[in-house]
Amino acid sequence: MYKKIELPYTSLEPYISDETLNLHYGKHYLSYLERLNKMAGNLNESKEQIVLHIADFPSVIQDDLLYQVGGVLNHELYFQNMAPKKTPLKGELKEKIIKKYGSEENFIESFQKESKKLVGSGYTFLVIKKDGDIDILNLSNQDTPYSYGMIPIMALDLWEHAYYLDYKNDRNLYIHNFFQIVDFDYISNLYDEKKQQNL
């Protein structure tokens, strides 16, 4: 059985309401986890390995299984890369971001700009590519960068349930406010952990 993650905070107010957080974690995320466990809870593989070896499963369940495991992976990264107060970039990831984007502010602007391009439901990710470079990309629904040989280290959930109670149709304000609660300390540490990983 795949275990749920515990939220590393109790509130993200005022940027994300407690009502939204509780519904998002308690209903949406845990529903994906429950369905994943019904389909694959007896496996010893990690969730990432399910994605990487999806072709080993019966074709009739591949799409649904990929959707459920993507829903779990994406939500877990999203919840874990936030904190009640923004934390700073550090270490090698900070150096790579400044080298590629010129500054942390330019990176945030690029991430926000890319997020606003996403049509419909999905996520904006910061990923480690196969060549070790970093990049920002959008994926629809519960698609995961692992399917494309990339490792996600930051995720912004752009499904309506992530923001609509708080922001209604002002998705741009939600995207802006995400950077008031982004946990760059967690993301920097995750980069250090994942940068040598071979998919």
Q: Which regions have little confidence, pLDDT < 50, spanning 5+ residues? A: none
End-to-end separation: 23 Å
Run of helices and strands: HHHHHEEEHHH
* Name of the top-level CATH class: Alpha Beta
Q: What is the β-strand count?
A: 3
Give the mean pLDDT: 96
Largest sheet: 3 strands, antiparallel
Q: Beta-sheet strand percentage?
A: 5-15%
Describe this structure in words.
With 199 residues, the chain is mainly alpha-helical. It has a single domain, classed as Iron/manganese superoxide dismutase, C-terminal domain (minor pseudopilin epsh fold, 3-Layer(bab) Sandwich). It is built from 8 helices and 3 strands. The longest helix is centred in the N-terminal third of the chain and has 23 residues. The chain is globular, with a radius of gyration of 16 Å.
